[in-house]
User: Fold this.
Amino acid sequence: GVESRFKYQLPKRRKHGNLVCKRALYSLKESPLARWVSDVLKGDFTKPIETASAFVSLLDHKGNKVAGWHLTNLYPVKWNLEKLDSKTNEMAIESIEFVFNTIERKV
Assistant:
């Protein structure tokens, strides 16, 4: 027979949110990333979305890599420009939000 005195707990799937990257706004002509994001978000979805893999690094204040993550099947879902205010002397910041299937921490 089967003994049912023990309770087993199975591991759960790892959950993750979307990746949001922010940077100072600069010329779109110079950025392959900006062209790819624009192509995906302006598409009419008659063609499949072109996904990509990416490596994201966390840097310390001296520019040394502290941690890194490899993401697969990444594609953009939102591209935003923070509010512009002519009365301040702040840089224009754009944010790009991506979804992805898997994330793996790399050292």
Remarks:
- The CA atoms of residues 24 and 91 lie 6 Å apart.
- The helical segments are 32-42.
- The chain has a mean pLDDT of 87.
- The first strand starts at residue 19 and ends at 24.
